[in-house]
């Protein structure tokens, strides 16, 4: 692999925990072991995109195309692996990055500000973005009222007008009508002429063949093939034809097997495998294992709490609980240190809020009256006797 790249992904994986309850989610955050099943959406994907290249991403539903696009765009983090993107990216997926409660115009401003444009620059671009999106009065309505085609139009228009170095288009053209599609294709062609880098995700092999210089075929979380467009699309078509000829039962069996492989994926085993392969290529390098480890974990931000933070959180929680108990018990700290059992034997009277105290007095008085009556009754009873 040459160093002359715009995007580089190396040994990228993405794991999802398939939580069933909120409690499982919380436990996992605190690194408490749960029996939640795991699913590896990506199982070690590596490729590079050269400057000015249009790379197509193809693969059947659920193969991991959007996952890798979102990782490259910085929308979601990878679980392991190295990702290097040289330049600003702008992703166009159906409704990606659009806030549904904001109007189209507000979304234009927000997304542009997030890309680093100033308010003056946005004002200058606003009319062009609105006119390209061509969604009429809806531009002043909240995005939640848009059809998927309208969201795609708005998203595409914003993305191409903010002039990113890298444009990632994820299935955005599949929902537009023919006129809009042609406008988008022309705009993408303009981008290519300007030497910009494009990642184009689509199920339409025709669109891919028309727009892309190279294609990566992602297959159930793995990179199955990358190369010249025609070569890869031909192999992919053969695969689709083979799959279509399977019986319904065999199709289901094949898909279940692939998903099972994604559930059973072992990240440590994969790391060992990569280390062994690289050690074989560089037998004299004593630092291969450390380099692979750094590549796997060096640039990732864990979605789970690191062990030290978990320990710290537990310590703070226990300390807080302890001091609360000391306070409630009413004993001085030194006394509790000498007699730990006294922490559960409070000395202080409970100080109740005013209203509660009054109510309590009334109840106690009533209680006393009752007791006096009882006393009188018993003395009368005694006199009669
Ligand atoms: N948040 C999530 N939690 C659990 N699994 C997820 C999550 N997001 C994606 N996945 C799973 O990861 C796999 C890859 O999904 P992804 O959306 O990347 O596929 P895709 O190739 O873009 O599919 P499509 O062509 O249908 O858009 C799928 O099996 C999907 O169910």
Automatic annotation (TrEMBL):
GO molecular function, one term: ATP binding
Top-level taxon of the source organism: Bacteria
Protein name (database record): ABC transporter ATP-binding protein
Organism: Apilactobacillus waqarii
Cited PROSITE patterns: ABC_TRANSPORTER_1, ABC_TRANSPORTER_2
Family: Belongs to the ABC transporter superfamily.
Region (Disordered) residue spans: 355-385
Pfam family, one: ABC_tran
CDD domains registered for this protein in UniProt: ABC_KpsT_Wzt (cd03220)
Positions of the ABC transporter domain: 7-245
Signal peptide start and end residues: none
UniProtKB keywords: ATP-binding, Nucleotide-binding, Transport
């Amino acid at each position: 692999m040459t160093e002359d790249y715009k995007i580089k992904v190396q040994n990228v994986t993405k794991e999802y925990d398939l939580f069933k309850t909120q409690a499982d989610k919380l436990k996992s955050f605190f690194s408490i072991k749960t029996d939640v099943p795991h699913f590896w959406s990506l199982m070690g994907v590596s490729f590079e995109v050269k400057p000015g290249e249009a790379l197509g991403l193809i693969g059947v539903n659920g193969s991991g195309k959007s996952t890798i696009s979102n990782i490259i765009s910085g929308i979601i983090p990878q679980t392991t692996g190295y990702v290097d993107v040289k330049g600003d990216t702008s992703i166009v997926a159906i409704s990606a990055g659009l806030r549904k409660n904001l109007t189209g115009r507000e979304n234009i401003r927000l997304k542009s500000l997030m890309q680093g444009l100033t308010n003056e620059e946005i004002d200058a671009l606003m009319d062009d973005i609105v006119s390209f999106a061509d969604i009429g009065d809806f531009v002043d309505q909240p995005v939640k009222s848009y059809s998927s085609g309208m969201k795609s139009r708005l998203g595409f228009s914003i993305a191409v007008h903010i002039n990113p170095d890298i444009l990632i288009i994820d299935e955005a053209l599949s929902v537009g009508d023919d006129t809009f599609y042609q406008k988008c294709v022309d705009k993408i062609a303009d981008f290519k002429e300007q030497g910009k880098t494009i990642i184009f995700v689509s199920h339409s092999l025709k669109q891919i063949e028309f727009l892309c210089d190279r294609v990566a075929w992602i297959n159930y979380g793995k990179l199955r093939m990358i190369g010249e467009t025609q070569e890869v699309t031909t192999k992919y078509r053969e695969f689709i034809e083979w799959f279509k000829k399977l019986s319904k039962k065999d199709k289901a069996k094949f898909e279940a097997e692939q998903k099972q492989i994604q559930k059973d994926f072992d990240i440590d085993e994969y790391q060992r495998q990569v280390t062994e392969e690289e050690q074989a290529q560089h037998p004299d390098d004593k630092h291969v294992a450390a380099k692979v480890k750094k590549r796997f974990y060096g640039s990732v931000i864990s979605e789970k709490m690191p062990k030290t933070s978990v320990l710290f959180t537990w310590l703070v929680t226990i300390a807080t609980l302890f001091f609360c108990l000391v306070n409630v018990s009413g004993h001085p700290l030194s006394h509790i240190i000498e007699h730990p059992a006294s922490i559960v034997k409070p000395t202080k009277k409970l100080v109740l809020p005013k209203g509660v105290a009054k109510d309590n007095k009334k109840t106690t008085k009533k209680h006393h009256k009752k007791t006096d009556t009882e006393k009188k009754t018993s003395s009368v009873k005694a006199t009669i006797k």
